[in-house]
Structure formats: C-alpha cells, structure tokens
Specification:
Layout lengths: L3 H23 L5 H35 L5 H6 L6 H16 L1 H8 L5 H12 L3 H8 L2 H10 L2 H18 L4 H7 L2 E6 L6 E6 L2 H22 L7 H17 L16 E3 L1 H6 L7 E3 L7 H8 L3 E2 L2 E3 L5 E3 L3 E2 L3 H10 L13 E5 L14 E5 H9 L3 E4 L5 E4 L5 E5 L5 H6 L5 H7 L1
Antiparallel strand pairs: 1-2, 3-4, 5-8, 6-7, 9-10, 11-12, 12-13
Length: about 425
C-alpha cells in the first residue's frame, strides 16, 4: 500500500516539474508546433487536476463522515484561500461523478471537459428524482458526449435527453420549465457590483427578451452616435430602466407596485465640498459609490440630515426634495425633452448646473432637465455644462474644448400653439 508520504512526494514532483517547465518557457522561444503540443498537454493536465480534486473531495468526505477529519468544505477551502463559489462548483462536479459512473470513469481518465460537468450538474439539479433516474440510463451516451462535445453542443444534448424524458412521462418541457423559473439579485464578491440572475420559461422569457430588446433600441436611438458606451453597458441600462420604471409606476386600485428607493449615506463635508480623505459614500447595504455618482444622485433626491452625538443619541431632520414639484412643473413647461439629446422626460433627471456638492442652490436658474446618460457624463466623465441667464447652454468636452451651444428653450405651450414667445412669461418660467 502506498504511504501518505509517497503521495505527498508524487504531488511535489508534479508541482516542481510544472514550475521548471514554466520557468524554462519564460526564457525560450519554442516552435509553433511545440507550443500547440504543450497546450494539448496542459489541457489534459487541467482535466486530470479536476479529477484529482474530485477524488480528494471524496476522501475528505469519507474522513469527515467517520469523524476522523474536519468538514469537507473546510478541507476544500484550503484555509479560506478558495472561494465558496469554487468549493460549491467542486461539490456539484463530485455529485455528477457519483451519479453517473461512466461519466466518472471518463473524468478519471482526464477526458471530460470540466465545463461539461458543470452543465450536467446544473441541468440535473433542476430535475426530479425520477427524471434523474431515467437520465442515469443514458450514462454511456452522456459520457461519450462529454468527451467529444464542446460545452454548447453538450448542453443541447443533455437538454434533448431531459425533454425526451419529460415527454415520455407525460409532462411537457414547457410545464417543467415553468416550475424551474427563478430570479435573484445578489451582491458580487468584490462588494462593488450587483449580479442579476433569472431563469424564465419560454413565454415569460420571450416577453422579457422582447421588452429588453425594444428598450435597448430606444436607448440607442436616444443616445445617437459618439456616446462612448459599449453594447453591454447599454444593455444593462435598458434592463435597469425597465425594472425601475415598472417599480415606480404610481399605485392605483389595480396596481400596488412598490416605490423603488436607493438610500445613500454620506457625510456633510463630502456633500457640501466634495470628497476628502475620510469621506463616507455608500449605500445602506455598505456598497461604496463614487463621488461623481453621489453628485448625480444629489441633483434629484430626498435629503435627510442625520446627527449622531458622542453619547450615541441620533436625530434625523425632516426630508427635503432638492427639486420641488413646482420647480419640476416649471421645467416641464420649458422643456418637453432633453435639450442635449432629445431624450423623453421618462429618461430625464434634474441637474444642478452649479453642482449642489459645490454649493449650487436648488433654484430654477440653476436647474436643467437632462437625460440620465448626459447626467452621468457630466458628473463622472468630465463633460461640463454652463448655462447663461437666458438658458443658453454651453457644453464642453472633457478636454475643455467647446462641443455645442444650445439655444434657449421655447416654452412648450407656445411651441404647440405656434405663437411667438412672450419674453415676460419666459422670464417667469425660468
């Protein structure tokens, strides 16, 4: 029987060999054929390492079950140096190997793409016990497919097997897909972003996809050219707008949707004078946000001052909106769309020309409605916007060069009636 010390020595020899190979490659210039051969070898070793981890996980589980070893999760995390997500993925792979013996044999031989194990784990994880039992009867076909097919083709193969099983049992794939619907919004591990994950059946998924596609196209039309956004960024904004707009729909007797709120905590010095060494700018969930984003939010938000005393006593002031309903109505009377991009009011936010964080007052002579995209560019991307007393706008690029001059607005009612502008009414509205 091989001793434990022998296993450790074998593992160290493999590790030392890889270090030596990497060191030699760093200072060498191998021929293309050699590089291709080494890549094939490295991929094989990668698959073999997956098999090794699965085997070690099985041994750790046996030790934990017998009471002679720590919990398997603790072993596989290697002193917390490995993420929970990685450990969970390894556990799912091990379950696939236990459930499908022929797939497990191919894994042990280093022949199966690791991603195919993940596909099989995800699909079978949402199947009933009876469905999984029927899938096990296709173990040989699954093993063969897992060896020769890429991840996309293998996914389709497994899905066809699953759908056939469900059709044979009298349950349509659509009915089962409806039972599998789910959605979640979670904070990413770096504590900087959110991840949205959802699974819809065909009907719901098609409706969501169509709504997102239309919103994406509308955003592209509103942004025009030269916006500097990637397709992924526009797609994310479209999804955000669909969700938040729906959540903010006014409640009626037949519609009781909640109001979407974003609460941000910051210190008075940061809000009044800008960021400093000890600035606090974060959501109530503890997620940090940038000073530019704070400036954008502060243009159109409800502000409540919170005073905390050394003895632990806390007081909160009454809330105040930075732009009153009357001011919004006045701005709407002047602008029926964004003066820069032409975006609709549903996509606009009230902007302080002289930033509120820099002492700008919330009065009409300092307020202008602009699209969310341009609000972001001005606060975060270095664009600047100046406004004359007659509301002529001067837009400059981040490098300071002039980009565009925008004439004063024509009040909405005058424009619709094709009347000449009354300077007195214009002055009152502005």
């Amino acid at each position: 029987m091989t001793k434990s010390a022998d296993f450790e020595q074998q593992s160290k020899r493999v590790s030392d060999g890889l270090v030596a190979l990497l060191s030699g490659l760093a200072s060498a210039d191998p021929e293309p054929g050699v590089v291709a051969a080494l890549v094939a070898d490295a991929r094989l070793q990668q698959r073999q390492l997956v098999a090794l981890l699965i085997c070690l996980q099985s041994k750790a589980a046996a030790h934990a079950s017998a009471g002679v070893g720590p919990p398997v999760e603790e072993v596989m995390q290697d002193g917390r140096s490995v993420s929970d997500v990685t450990v969970f993925r390894d556990r799912m792979r091990a379950q696939v190997v236990d459930t499908f013996p022929q797939v497990g044999e191919a894994v042990a031989a280093g022949e199966v793409f690791p991603e195919n194990l993940d596909v099989l784990a995800r699909i079978t994880g949402r199947m009933t016990d009876d469905e999984v039992a029927s899938m096990i009867e296709r173990d040989g076909d699954l093993a063969s497919a897992a060896v020769r097919l890429g991840v996309d083709s293998f996914r389709k193969k497994v899905q066809r097997f699953r759908n056939k099983i469900r059709d044979d049992s009298g349950a349509t794939a659509q009915e089962q897909a409806r039972l599998e619907e789910c959605a979640s919004v979670s904070v990413s591990r770096d504590n900087q972003t959110h991840r949205v994950h959802a699974i819809f059946d065909t009907m719901h998924g098609t409706a969501v996809a169509n709504a997102h596609r239309l919103e994406y196209r509308r955003l592209c039309d509103d942004l025009g050219s030269g916006h500097g956004l990637t397709a992924d960024q526009i797609s994310a904004q479209a999804l955000h707008d669909l969700i938040v707009r729906g959540g903010n729909t006014p409640a009626t007797e037949t519609n009781n949707r909640p109001t979407v709120m974003l609460q941000v905590i910051t210190d008075g010095q940061t809000l009044a004078h800008g960021p400093h060494e000890n600035s606090i700018i974060e959501t109530t969930d503890g997620l940090p946000i940038s000073p530019g984003t704070l400036g954008q939010i502060a243009c159109d938000c409800v502000i409540s001052r919170i005073e905390s005393l050394p003895d632990g006593d806390v007081n909160a002031s009454r809330s105040s909106r930075t732009a009153t309903p009357a001011q919004r109505a006045a701005l709407r009377a002047l602008y029926d769309c964004c003066p820069i991009s032409g975006a609709r009011w549903s996509q606009m936010e009230v902007h302080h020309v002289h930033f509120q964080s820099q002492g700008g007052e919330t009065k009409l002579s300092n307020l202008i409605p602009i699209s969310r995209r341009w609000h972001h560019l001005i606060h975060d991307a270095g664009w600047t916007l100046q406004m004359d007393a007659d509301r002529t706008l001067h837009l400059s690029r981040p490098d300071g060069t002039h980009h565009q001059t925008i004439a004063p607005p024509v009040p909405v009612l005058h424009r619709r009636d094709n009347d000449s502008v009354d300077p007195d009414s214009h002055a009152l509205a502005a």
